[in-house]
Amino acid sequence: MADDKKSMQSDGRPKRTSAVVRYLAQAGIRGVQLFKGPGYFCFEGKPTEDWIDHTVRVTFLNDLTFEQWLQTFRAMDSNPANRESVRQARP
């Protein structure tokens, strides 16, 4: 158990997508999944339903720290240009 907590320190590097999902949940972001594609990762789930771009262009999960994954999610979530609703509202 101590090893699990140590591996989820913000400056630690994740080994599994489930660890990133748990870290996001600890930060209050629930209902998100992280999937691997060829050369990228993709956020999916209820909080991302109206996002236009779900992809994070990194080759390996541990290219980012836990904190960087959290910052990336928050940046994508707060970017108005990444919202389908914003795109639909424009003439």
Structural summary, described in words:
The chain is an alpha+beta fold and 91 residues long. It has one domain (2-89). Helices cover 38% and strands 15% of the residues. The protein has four helices and three strands; from the N terminus they run ααβββαα. The chain has helices spanning 2-7, 17-26, 66-78, 84-89, and strands at 32-37, 40-45, 55-56. A three-stranded antiparallel beta sheet has the order 1-2-3, with helices on one face. The longest helix is centred in the C-terminal third of the chain and has 13 residues, at 66-78. The radius of gyration is 14 Å and the shape is globular. It starts with a helix and ends with a helix.
Q: Key terms for this structure?
A:
single chain, alpha+beta, three-stranded antiparallel β-sheet, 4 helices, 3 strands, globular
